[in-house]
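Section 3.1: Structural characterization of target chains.
Under the original work plan, the team committed to producing a structural model for every single-chain target entering the pipeline before any wet-lab resources were allocated. The record below documents one such target. The sequence was received from the expression subgroup and is listed exactly as submitted; it comprises 128 residues.
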Amino acid sequence: MTRRTRSTPAQPRIEPKAVVAVARKPQVKAEVKAEMKAKAAAPSRTVPEPAPLPSPTTPKAPSGKLGTLLGQIGNPAGAGIDELADATGWQAHTIRAAFSRLRQRGFPIALVTGTDGRKAYRLEAKEG
């Protein structure tokens, strides 16, 4: 009885990678180097114009729910967080986050406490 062995297919022979020659940079003469340095050190002929300064006016009032918030707190008495939540349908933390963004845009929003203990958000008059 002969023993049968499993024959494996022949593996393809992998050739070694070819050696790639790297071309050298041509030598630059000292005169050319001096010219290149002089060009790099020379000041630019065109001077960029300065960016326009932002106008000191009040920012443009947004529309939508942010406009609703600003409209409600624009009253002299201001508006409480519950009143603002009813007007916009937002939760209290969302209203506070919106005020934070409006302050970053330049709207002077302040939280004031009345003599009766009522806390209300109100637009303050900008000084200056």
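Residues 65-123 form a domain with the Arc Repressor Mutant, subunit A fold (CATH 1.10.10.10).
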